[in-house]
Amino acid sequence: MPKDKHFQISQAAQQSGVSAKMIRHYEELGLIPKVRRSSSGYRLYSEEDLHFLKFIKQARELGFSTARIKALLGLWRNPSRSSRDVKALAKNHIGELETKIKDLEQMRATLLELVNSCRGDQRPQCPILNRLASRK
User: Fold this and answer.
1) Domain chopping of the chain, boundaries
2) Residue 7 gets which letter from DSSP?
3) In whole angstroms, how far apart are CA 8 and each of 14, 27, 107, 109?
4) What CATH number does the domain located at 1-63 have?
5) pLDDT, tens digit (0-9, with 9 covering 90-100), for 37-59
6) In whole angstroms, what is the distance from residue 20 CA to residue 25 CA?
7) What pLDDT was estimated at residue 3?
8) Could you give the CA distance from residue 91 to residue 98 in angstroms, rounded to a whole number?
9) Which of 12, 13, 31, 83 can pair with 45 through a Cys bridge, CB separation 3.0 to 4.6 Å?
């Protein structure tokens, strides 16, 4: 019977595109199950573990929080899941992204206004610093 292939953490990092530090962090958070260890104490990751890591990486790239990734993983592992639940989770995330985008656009507009009102010369007067120092 062929033995399942296992990877040490550096190999798992290379294969998944997730740093070794983040792999340990995800394991600590419970996003991936505690992995098997070799007789010398090295973590040994399976193909399934790599699949989880790739899933987590893609979810992080879409901006999902750790809590939401945990929920997504739970739904992914559950063959009797409802796609309605997955869609609702994604729609909630979109709403949060839209709020963040609005906030970022507002920050950008304020900074543009401040930059445009700053002469940028040798004088010490600077509306950017004045705004940052204001007690608003």
Assistant:
1) 1-63, 90-136
2) B
3) 10, 14, 44, 48
4) 1.10.1660.10
5) 988 989 999 999 999 999 999 99
6) 9
7) 57
8) 11
9) 12
Q: How far apart are CA 32 and CA 53, in angstroms?
A: 8
* Dist CA 10 CA 43 (whole Å): 10
Record the tokens describing residue 67, joined without a space.
């809590």
Measured between alpha carbons, how far is 132 from 24 in angstroms, rounded to an integer?
A: 39
Block residue for tokens 């998944």: 16
Please give the biggest Cα pair distance in the chain.
78
Report which of 71, 96, 99 is spatially closest to residue 85, judged by C-alpha positions: 71
In terms of residues, how long is the chain? 136
Dihedral angle sign, alpha carbons of residues 19, 24, 29, 33: positive
